[in-house]
Amino acid sequence: MRLGVDVGGTFTDLLLQDDISKRTYRAKTPSTPEDQSIGVETGIRLICERAGVSPSDISVVLHGTTVATNAVLEGKGARVGLLVTKGFEHTLHLAKSWTPGPLFGWIVMEKPDPLAALRDTRGIPERMTARGEIMTELDEARAVALIDDLCGSGIEALTISLMHSYANPAHEQRLREIVAERFPDLQVSLSSEILPEFREYDRAITTVMNDYVRPIMTRYLSRIENRLRDAGVASKLHIVRSDGGLMSAAAASDRPVYTVLSGPAGGVTATGMVARRTGLNKLLAFDMGGTSTDVSVILDGEPMITRSTEVGYFPAKVPTLDVRSVGAGGGSIAEVAELTSSLRVGPRSAGAVPGPVAYRRGGTEPTVSDANVVLGYLPQKLLGGDMDLDVEGARTAVAGIGEQIGLSPEDAALGILDIANEVMLGALRVITVQRGLDPRDFGIVAFGGAGPLHGNAMAALLGCYPVVIPANPGVLSALGFLEAEFKNEFVQTLIRATSEGEDSVIWDHFATLRAKAVAWLDEQEIESADRGLSYTLDLRYEQQGFEVSIPVPAESVETASDLASVLGNFHETHERLYGVRFDLPIELVALRVIATGATPAVEDTPPAAGSVDPKDAVIEVSRAYFAGAWQETTHYDRDRLAVGARVEGPAIIRQYDTTTVLLPDHYAEVDDHGNLMIWPVKKGA
């Protein structure tokens, strides 16, 4: 029995997969921002009770967490000390000399303080060249004095990031030995291990970010492992990486920077699974939760991977799924701006506490969820009847907004949803239109607690169909964790012209990286049959600023063949991505070996019960507000809709973990995999 746990801003979602009976169980419980592990323990007890099993029956726990992300965004990380090469103490301050505005951006930009303060930075006398040759020997006597001064000042973690250490880490390793001798309890990260790549600022900030969140992540994982034991769970805990892979809890404690986008990764992985099973190779993932919405693109059934991301103002050069986030969710607060008297929604969120007014947890400000309640899109009871909504409270809160701008409660609620939809539409345009992709060529998978409420409306705005509502949309991210595989990436910067002809050097480096990858697979106890190794080269035209990753066939690595086919692939890939190829020398930048360990797939289980006739699934008929008027709207129980059942809009389709809104002039049909497929009537006629 495998358990996926996704901690969100409002709810903690859990999905339990019984690999023997092929049954899945789901549960949602309010998140506990003061200590996320409390909500996780509560959820585990709840889902085990629902499944009729003991916590000791769980064989593995797969957990996505936002602990690292929140620590950076909220500025609540550890006090980090930084050792750099003498003369480069201002690396984090200079950054990339970039401002967010194209014109006069520097006038309005409030540049954040670096994650490691200048007062906690020390310059070590030493220097390596870009080829890894020692230019200036390490001055150990001076290094000891600087280390004693810095580490004795109260720092909680230490980053060592020296010039060109990716080419030769000897000085970084020696400094770590000195620190271990004098301050054995201090957590230390080396840039040559966290990110052994060139570009000094990227390597330094990524490693500092690792230490900035490391003590917090270590404490959190310790708490959650203790709570798992208290709940009776004896299995191992694995953490989801930003690229959708898995890592052990111990590895996550050492390298938490690889989890900065852990939360959204599960939903993107699950969307890829939906694409492969339905044959819809072009999909947009639309994950709307309580505090934010995450969107991404699936092409040819696979999510897009990027080598870097941003957490707030700070870049993190780690492999991540290409996800864009906006501050719009079910808990986003609606308010009227004082100066302009205009309605705005988000990015402030009511979160889990106090939450939307309708949730009866002390919330007083109207939210997107309250607007859905006012319009009749949400039933009076959620979570299978476990949560009773305060309909009148939500209406009173939304009516207060309406009075300020001269609108009825219904039109104010509709305005709140329209603005929230426009915010989310902007994120979807960024990942499609701004990249030359036509959203009309895509379907959209709507999931998360609020995704199915807004999915049909987003598709109508973008013209992307079908809208796919998976069988377990409210807990789809937790399901995606079960689909994730173990993954780690091993990289070596090697800047050289490919025309130099010394291909043997490249194959030797690949052999070294492969040995590290195999050793990691051994540490993770991955069975031989489940192991996978893939190889890539980062290439660019000579003097270009950025590179493109090109796969290298495994047989080419094993037989040390020539690079002609790989270089030809680079030309084709560059032309496909940027519309041009050049007759210029190609330069090698880095080699990568990606190790993977397969996990059991979650089997596709279409509805076994229910009826093709939607009349057999009717729960009630109540009023809902569509197209500026109240309409009698049928509510259906999704669990009673069998494969082939077709529901005409407008309709509300209810299930334990979410509610789906089907707009007028649309219909929904249950496909062979149990997904709800929403189409406009004109297209499906």
Automatic annotation (TrEMBL):
Residue span(s) of domain Acetophenone carboxylase-like C-terminal: 506-673
Domain annotation Hydantoinase/oxoprolinase N-terminal: ranges: 2-181
Keyword match Transmembrane: no
Biological process annotations from GO: glutathione metabolic process
GO molecular function, one term: ligase activity
EC number: 6.4.1.8
Alphabetized UniProt keyword annotations: Ligase
Any single Gene Ontology cellular-component annotation: cytosol
Hydantoinase A/oxoprolinase domain boundaries: 203-489
PANTHER family: 5-OXOPROLINASE RELATED (PTHR11365), HYPOTHETICAL 5-OXOPROLINASE (EUROFUNG)-RELATED (PTHR11365:SF23)
Protein name: Acetophenone carboxylase gamma subunit
